[in-house]
Specification:
It contains 13 helices and 13 strands. With about 350 residues, the chain is an alpha/beta fold. The chain is globular, with a radius of gyration of 21 Å. The chain starts with a helix and ends with a helix. GO terms for molecular function: histidinol-phosphate transaminase activity; pyridoxal phosphate binding.
């Protein structure tokens, strides 16, 4: 039997090889290609994981209704109760659930582009067509044009990554809120994977706006990418619908413990975010010494760059155990670099200098 026609015709999400896992020695490796945190998670995470591993409960299924974690998330996101929150084994898993729950085969889905491409691939993979609304040449979003586009195309569902990946641009929060309020018949999925780096959110709308779903992850600022855990913030009625299909056993107990421990040490996350902001500013200043153009509006832990001989630069850095992301398949001529600590970015700059002075 052949795969269904949706899969046969699908343009897949272009992940990149994770060559780093093939290394036997991780000394001096600088992983700047997947936008993970470049430091370990809070010591509290290690402490709580060790406690669980010694508890003798690895043979149990995970907690399918972790009230303590839900309450911690409701406090962190300033929601009235945990009824506005649900946990998933990554925000990608949440997106898959949302597609299954809220979209029909004939739904008109708009994606603000260029952006993180996994949602598009998943929607297309189940036979749902998507249309793009493109950012301008400076990677900014024209909200007036978008509003007209939504009406003209009779859009049912909109996916927007804010801050956007891979540009790092954080859109005008007031305009985004107004767009959501003024279009109650359109379901808005706002992917806030990088919220911690810009602290701008539409989370205050979920109590009264049933047409809004927010997804977030612990993979970025919280440094828990290996655990694969994320969550949804939305109106209580949407959470109830989501839970009709959600597999509550799919969030491992180790992931839940790690997330809860990380939420008990938000100060640690905030300090890392401050480090990133400092090193990002220095990095954007220092790369001007090279023939490199940057999307300087970024408010995240990454920066989009355009440079001559880009593939040669990528290969040279890889030879020096530094990994960055080629984004030529989505934005021709651009690559993306994760921002780490000041020390890490200085090391990267040294290697860039070596390349350009050869």
């Amino acid at each position: 039997m052949l795969p269904n026609k949706n899969i046969q015709n699908l343009k897949p999400y272009m992940s990149i090889p994770h060559d780093i896992w093939n290394f036997k020695n991780y000394d001096n490796v600088l992983k700047l290609d997947w936008n993970e945190a470049t430091i370990n998670p809070s010591p509290k995470v290690f402490e709580h994981i060790y406690q669980f591993l010694n508890s003798g409960k690895l043979n149990w299924y995970p907690n399918t209704k972790n009230i303590e974690l839900l309450r911690a998330l409701s406090l962190y996101t300033k929601q009235d109760s945990e009824d506005y929150i649900e946990i998933f084994g990554s925000s990608d898993a949440a997106h898959e659930n949302i597609i299954d729950v809220f979209l029909e085969k004939n739904s008109i889905v708009c994606i603000i582009s260029p952006t993180y491409d996994n949602f598009r691939a998943r929607a297309n993979g189940v036979g749902i067509k998507t249309i793009n609304f493109m950012l301008d040449k400076n990677f900014e979003l024209d909200f007036d044009e978008l509003n007209n586009f939504l009406k003209q195309k009779k859009v049912d569902f909109l996916y927007i990554c804010n801050p956007n990946n891979p540009t790092g641009v954080c859109y005008d929060n007031n305009k985004l809120e107004q767009l959501i309020i003024n279009n109650p018949k359109i379901m808005f999925l706002v992917d806030e994977a990088y919220y911690e780096f810009c602290k701008k959110s539409v989370q205050n709308l979920v109590k009264n706006c049933k047409n809004l779903i927010i997804t977030r992850t612990f993979s970025k600022a919280f440094a828990l990418a290996s655990f694969r855990i994320g969550y949804v913030i939305s109106h209580v009625d949407n959470i109830k619908s989501i839970n009709k299909l959600r597999n509550s056993k799919n969030i491992s107990m180790l992931s839940q413990i790690a997330a809860l421990a990380a939420l008990k040490d938000v100060e640690y996350v905030d300090k890392f975010v401050e480090q990133v902001a400092t090193s990002r500013k220095l990095f954007l200043k220092d790369i001007k010494a090279f023939d490199i153009r940057a999307c300087e509006q970024t408010e995240t832990n990454f920066v989009l760059l355009s440079m001559k001989n880009m593939q040669e630069v990528i290969n040279y850095l890889k030879q020096n155990k530094i990994f960055i992301r080629n984004y030529n398949h989505i934005i021709p001529g651009y690559c993306r670099i994760t921002i780490g600590t000041v020390e890490q970015m200085r090391y990267l700059l040294d290697k860039l200098k070596e390349f350009y002075e050869r």
